Amino acid sequence: MAENNPDRVVLITGAASGIGAAVCRRIAGPGCSLVLHTRGSQDSRRQDLEAVAQQAEKAGSPVLTLFGDLSEDGLASGLVEQSLVHFGRLDQIVSNAGFADRRPLGEVDRETLDRSLRAMPGAFFDLVTAALPTLQDSAWGRVVAVSSFVAHVYAADGLFPATAAAKAGLESLAKSLAVQLAPTGATVNCVVPGYTRKDATGHSALSEEGWQRAIGKTPNGRIAEPDDHAAAVSFLLSRDASHITGQVIHVDGGLTLA
Ligand SMILES: NC(=O)c1ccc[n+]([C@@H]2O[C@H](COP(=O)([O-])OP(=O)(O)OC[C@H]3O[C@@H](n4cnc5c(N)ncnc54)[C@H](OP(=O)(O)O)[C@@H]3O)[C@@H](O)[C@H]2O)c1
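Above: inputs. Below: predicted complex with NAP.
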């Protein structure tokens, strides 16, 4: 039975809305067991994750839902441990949870920088460190980190210094891991969103006016949909992408070229 011996077990962090939820919708189905996570500090966000989980179960995926703040010590490694206890193995990780802070240097405080580093590269480090043995053993090992254009575009009217530092660290860790895991066949890549439409329940660092400006800055004249990124992530998770590793793939309508 596929449920007892799935083709792959996939952990997606930040899956209650936006890109994480879109990835879940793309890959859910028989043979794909899912561990879905959100911080869940508000009941409504826990309910959002449960709604995503119900959709995935309807599509044929067994699902485990987990909650917690990735900036807290031990949370990320605990997600891996709970995945292993529940499903017996973990083949793929989508390290998607994140947030943006657009305060410039001089206004952004040290605590925000530290929290950003703990919740993004720090959590990635803990996730993949805990998962290393199961990724190495997997016949279908994949890691995809969701980064951000803010680590690549430095425009005077759109600086995100704390977030940029966190996402740049995430990309560096992903490249090191890609080389380390390459002999095992497991791949590690980054998807780098440009400006992307938020679900009504998501967290936005921009005003309505800021989102309008974002459209103007994007060469193809639109912001991304979460599913634009989910398409890239699900491809990188697929067996077809087995020879792609250590790459940083921009899904941004040309934003980083402008
Ligand atoms: N939307 C954009 O324009 C854009 C652009 C570039 C990059 N990105 C990146 O894409 C990823 C997904 O963004 P999105 O817009 O789809 O997200 P979203 O809808 O705002 O959802 C973010 C998810 O991450 C979780 N999360 C945030 N901080 C967390 C923490 N400290 N601990 C645990 N979970 C945390 C949230 O949990 P709760 O809701 O439960 O708190 C939520 O499930 C993020 O890494 C973001 O940086 C987005």
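The first strand starts at residue 8 and ends at 12.
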